[in-house]
Amino acid sequence: MAKLAQWVEARPEGIYLPSIDAWIDPSHPVERALVTHGHADHARGGHKEVWATPETLAIMGVRYGDAHRGHAMAYRETITIGDIAVTYYPAGHVLGSAQILLEKDNVRVVASGDYKRRPDPTCALFEPVPCDVFITEATFGLPVFRHPDTPSEIAKLTDAIAAEPDRCVLVGAYALGKAQRVIMALRAAGYDAPLYIHGALQRLCDLYRDFGVELGELRLVADTPKDEMKGAIVLCPPGALNDRWSRRLPDPITAMASGWMRVRQRARQRNVELPLILSDHADWDELTSTLLEIRPQEVWVTHGREDALVHWCMTRQIKAVPLHLAHYEDEDD
Predict the structure, then answer these.
(1) Which of 94, 107, 189, 312 has a C-alpha 20 to 30 A away from that of 175?
(2) What's the alpha-carbon Rg for the chain, to the nearest Å?
């Protein structure tokens, strides 16, 4: 299929804009990177220049240091780089996440990065952007993936603690975005008690606070006597769920917050007793409803379950093509 925007190239290592020698979310160090958000499969270290939101630049600074030259992009601010106008819009994925609108030759291309459509007090809400070409993710691009509402999943946590007050619940949650979302969802549910966190979460929780996301009282597990954590909720990176570190906790009930918890085999592989289906990505209905809302002439599908979403588009007379980008990974989400 001939693509509408010939000035945008999809390469295995990322989306490339040859006229300005710039990449969107490249997998390797480049001279000029336009970055959608701070997750490691989108924001890598070693670039010479980076255009991103202030929050994403700060996240990259925490993770990689400040060796790159950062250009802060406010939402809805347009700059011109060579012959391409570039505007960043909220993506609703994590703090600072953005869609990137590219305009050239009267063609509008939106690279969505990762996005979700549900309200989340830790980041700006996704904003639909009219465009001719929409480059969409498809992480949960199968009809089986329909995420439940957040309050009902959070209620599983509080109910578990109420039922077994001599234990704690240990929640595996991705350090950037998911951990903070779980914390804020607990606060919204009226859970005002201290929450206990693994030390690996502290820097990013502090960064969220620096940008005005108030998380309530957080205490480090390493500084807390074991008995104090009975009846408490503890958060850690997914990799620490079954680590020796967890032995300092009072008989933990193991939970994990991820869209992948819809798949029972994944929960069993992680030895998860309490699966929490909480995703920072759009589910199948949100992916398809977004395409119907934006109504682009073409859809380019990046990572995830590309074929199913391409098929859905084609049955509705929407031109669609899978891009098969190589460097994206299934996040613990």
Answers:
(1) 189
(2) 20
CA atoms within 13 A on the CB side of 198: 23
Identify whether residues 171 and 255 lie together within a single domain.
yes
Residue 307 lies in a domain: yes
94 in Cβ contact with 280 (< 8 Å): yes
Ordered DSSP codes for 236-276: E-GGGTTSGGGGGSSSPEEEEE-GGGGSHHHHHHTT-SEEE
291 and 236: one domain?
no
Each residue's pLDDT tens digit, 180-218: 999 999 999 999 999 999 999 999 999 999 999 999 999
Whether residue 106 sits in one domain with residue 38? yes
Question: Domains in the chain: how many in total?
Answer: 2
Write out pLDDT tens, residues 117-135.
Answer: 999 999 999 999 999 999 9
303 has a pLDDT exceeding 90 = no
Q: What is the pLDDT of residues 86-101, one digit of tens each?
A: 999 999 999 999 999 9
Tell me which residue range forms the domain holding 208: 150-276
Residues 212 and 299 in one domain: no
Asked if 50 contacts 41 with a C-beta cutoff of 8 angstroms, the reply is: no
Q: Which CATH number goes with the domain that contains 243?
A: 3.40.50
| Interacting residues of 187 by C-beta distance below 8 A, sequence separation 6+ | 215, 216
254/230 same-domain check: yes
Q: What is the dihedral of CA 132, 321, 292, 176, to 10 degrees?
A: -90
Residue 265 shares a structural domain with residue 177:
yes
Cross-strand partners of 236: 172
4 in a structural domain: no
Where would I find the beta strands (DSSP E) of the chain?
Answer: 9-11, 14-17, 22-24, 32-34, 49-52, 69-72, 78-81, 84-90, 98-104, 107-111, 133-138, 169-172, 195-197, 218-220, 233-236, 253-257, 274-276, 298-304, 319-322
CA-nearest of 269, 95, 96, 91 to 172 is 269
CA 90 – CA 112 distance, rounded (Å): 9
284: left (phi over 0), alpha (psi -120 to 50) or beta: alpha
